[in-house]
Amino acid sequence: MIYEVGMGRTGTRSLALAMEILGYRAKYRRTRPESKVLRHTISRGFPIADWMADYDYVGGLYMPFLGQLAERQPHAQLIATIRDRTSWLTSCRNYLESPKHLEEVERYEARQPIDENLFMRFLMFGTMRFRATALIERYDRYLRDLDAMPNQGRLLRLDVGAGWRPLCEFLGKPEPEAPFPHIQHRQHHAQATTS
Amino acid sequence: MLDCKVFEIGMMRTGTRSLARAAQLLGYSAIHAPTRKTAEEFYQSVISGEFAPEFINDHQYVGGCAAPFWDRLLDRYPTAKFILTTRDKRSWLRSCHAMTRHTNMPPLRELVESKSLSVKMLMRLLFFRCADVNEEAMWSAYLRHQRSVLLEVPTDRLLVIDVTKPGQWNKLCPFLGCGVPDWPFPHMTSCWTDISRQTA
């Protein structure tokens, strides 16, 4: 089993697609109908669901639970997507200042039921608002947590901009001919908002 | 003598309230949780992820609410000292259960789904990392918090203390650089424990 433990806005969706191209049964958390997993995650303190047995790769769920995952799955391979701070921060701004996110925060502030996606985002980014300092502190904390993990051999830090090679070397797979998938975050989010 | 800044960074339900009282007795201006007046500021500082509310600068001893942000405080207050409160597994879990069972507070899960996710609830989620009382997840959060603190806070700035055990003045006072008082170490029974005793 392979788990993606990357921070939001570091190419986690693109990686899920790449894993599919490589032949893995890959799942990214947002795809329906399994979105219930977020509700269960908040209540149990760890993402776990029956449907996971049908997949070789799960993405978009485990970053806030890195410590627990490392303990519970001592032999699983972990992929942490990373990205340079400046472009990551820009992407965070686009995301956390998008109308969709702001609307969710507003609803939450008005004491409406909290949206699971919003809560997951809070656990991940450590903030509900775009705050550059808080985000950078969170990101650095996360990188330190990665460094502190035992058994570094099972962990890949992956910059999805680097293409197939590092990923395929880690997985022991030949490099495919198809280009490495690249999902435009902003575009994707805009579509999600209007759909 | 009492010019040094102190943050208590123990998990919820580890005697943090008693320790804040002890700090007060030693002459510290101590705060255990945000007051009604500072609640909104505190809330904003938590959800913005910044944790820089003004009131933490107004007190020498800040407890109860700083633990999830300990690593940032470590960098921001390079001369501050830190106290990690600990408690044995069984009694800690029992206390956590009591907190949710015997209060007016509904289980966290319901609050997440209801319209009243307050600061307190948010803090509980940050501490326990789960909404239901899930012993495995909670204890694992406890251990990981302890491990990170022990790993990263320099030993000369850190005191580890179990206030449920006797002899705590002798640990606390030398760490803070003050004399040992002759009155007993305070023991604040929380409202939750009281109620659980009444109904038991």
Q: How big a fraction of the residues of chain A is strand?
A: 5-15%
Lateral arrangement of strands in the main beta sheet of chain B: 2-3-1-4-5
Mean pLDDT metric of chain B = 83
What is the count of helical runs of chain A? 9
Coarse structural class of chain B: alpha/beta
| End-to-end gap of chain B | 45 Å
General form of chain A: globular
Following the backbone from N to C, one meets helices and strands of chain B in this order, namely EHEHEHEHHHHEHH
Number of strands of chain A: 5
Approximately how much helix is present in the residues of chain B? 40-55%
Report the structural category of chain A.
alpha/beta
Given as residue ranges, the uncertain stretches of chain A (5+ residues, pLDDT < 50) are 187-195
User: What is the overall shape of chain B?
Assistant: globular
Given as residue ranges, the uncertain stretches of chain B (5+ residues, pLDDT < 50) are 191-200
Give a summary of the structure in a few sentences.
The complex is a heterodimer of chains A (195) and B (200). With 195 residues, chain A is an alpha/beta fold. Chain A is built from 9 helices and 5 strands.
Describe this structure in words.
The complex is a heterodimer of chains A (195) and B (200). By secondary structure, chain A is α/β, with parallel strands linked by helices. Chain A contains 9 helices and 5 strands. In chain A, helix 2 links the parallel strand 2 and strand 3. In chain A, helix 4 crosses helix 7. The two termini of chain A are 32 Å apart. With 200 residues, chain B is of the alpha/beta class. In chain B, strand 2, helix 2 and strand 3 form a beta-alpha-beta unit. The longest helix of chain B has 18 residues. Chains A and B meet through helix 2, helix 3, helix 6 and helix 7 of A and helix 5 and helix 7 of B.
